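Retro notes, structure queue

What went well: the backlog is down to a handful. What didn't: a couple of records were mislabeled last round, so from now on we paste the full input next to the output in the thread. Example, using Carbamoyl phosphate synthase small chain from Flammeovirga pectinis:
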Amino acid sequence: MEKKTAILMLQDGTTYKGTAIGAIGTTTGEICFNTSMTGYQEIYTDPSYYGQIIVNTVSHIGNYGTVHNENESAKPQINGLVVKSFSSVYSRNTAEGSLQDYLENANLVGIADIDTRELVRHIRQKGAMNAIITSEISDLDEIKKKLKATPDMEGLELSSVVCTKEPYSVGDPHAAVKVAVLDLGIKKSILDNFTSRGMLCKVFPSNTTFEQMKQWKPDGYFLSNGPGDPAVMDYAVETAKQILEADKPLFGICLGHQVISRAVGLSTYKMHHGHRGANHPVKNLISGRSEITSQNHGFAVDMDSIKKNDNIELTHINLNDDTVEGIKVLDKKAFSIQYHPEASPGPHDSRYLFTRFLELIQD
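Corresponding output:
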């Protein structure tokens, strides 16, 4: 079967020609790269990637197929996929199907056989930007026109698009500890880490108020990861403020960390090209230990705003670029982390944070 040509065009006009993978069609979104060596299925189904085109930096993608229980959400969340060498043949004997079939079933458009190393160098230099992949349009002017209509990630509120529409429970109904989870785009692995420690979770839609969650009488509150710009999420920031005012145990990961930070007066900003991969070194400033972490974020908390706030302790710092990776609110039972301690697959160096949250509730 003859391979179909696909085109990738970046916002600055840079254009690549390659081979179509997945569904035949056209897609747009913010292009970003992930440096993880494994776990492509977990990446594609992470709701934090909603609206983005992912470049996998590892050379071979698709070679171990797909398995249903490796999904982090009900379906792939990315807008498009860029890889170097794509394999529609898989070798893992537990695989349930090929990545090609998986992408086609999800109507996901992608491109292969391009120099992803050169592309990543370009993104690192020029910064995150919008892009378009098409395997059905050949006119470059028409492609450019469609790309121009794509909204920028900065200023986008996306949690309400990807979150659950109705509350649901996960875990032992008779568990001694109950955690109210505000779903901003949660990953399944996070809930697994709570329930494996004997916690019952009730997951609420992103726009649920503190008063509504409080009626369930939880012992602690959790703000999840998710996509979009925290600066336009006043509704979630207000919920975090009320949880803090009630002095309830509070934990946040990634977008949840950014929302909590804004609730205590810190500011956030759009990063040049973000942190995405399973190999980012972070130092725990409390223990002095370094952790290899999994990350996925294009926004971050401003370091200077922490230095000006006497009630906030910086607990974790990124060893690559000295950006904020974790904070603690000194007069409250609240802490948050920028990276992903639940990483699955990925390093498990940071899973102690779930235990720390449980201990905070039990104290």
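Agreed that this is the format going forward. Reviewer comment attached to the example: The longest strand covers residues 268-284.
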